Amino acid sequence: MPAALLLQSNTLSPGVSLPYYYVAEHDLVGATFFFSMFALLGAAIFFFTERSNVPRRWRVNMTVSGIICLIAGISYYYMQGMYLNLHITPTRFRYIDWLFTVPLMCTQFYLLMRPEGATPGSLWRLFLGAVWMVGFGYFGESSSSYWSILWGAVSTLGYMAVVHEIWFGPLAKLVDSCPNEDVGQAFAYMSYFILIGWSIYPLGYLTMPFNLFENLHLNRNLVYNFADVFNKVGFSLVLYCMARKVANRKKVAVKKLKSLAVLGQIGHL
To answer: pTM (2 decimals)?
Structure first.
């Protein structure tokens, strides 16, 4: 079967339901719904399980990471059903997913910097910017081609507000003065996910009014499915890796103290 056909939407009649194994073998886009669902649900289990293995400061972040991946994984369960059985793009379910998970991802920045003095004002600006971006983005994707350009531009204002708060706002200033290098490094990596990783979504958005990827036979769902896994799981893994780095450093420090204590006791003998 040509690769172009694999990238196109299912063409069976609306009344026909496909067995899952058939879709996974003959429809690349349909298979990515399964891939995304399993990756996100597996990540949720991982973050919930590992929550107790990170320092106390990072546990709330791990809990939120697990919730983000769990919501997205459950959403993908319903989205793949709509795509495979109804043969429609699950735009509404996708935006319901984003309406919950995108503000939660923005909340992670506030939670990370709260011990350093972050104020609730930063949380509200991030939250409102994320809701604005997702809400007007939905209007754009559910409108005609010309209106989608207008709503997309309005949606971008919310995205710019989030970027400004993270890169130039009070949170960025707190990071600059933060004595904890691990926190600053985690914040920086997460910021790049927002600046670069989230740019994947406008690429998918541009396929509507301009048919940008039509000649490549690239389905918009394919772009969104991989982007969701990359951004949600990768974003959360940054926090986890930094938290584990801190935990390992503390273990090494404790071992050194114990070794010094033993050597001190031997010296007194």
So the answer is: 0.83
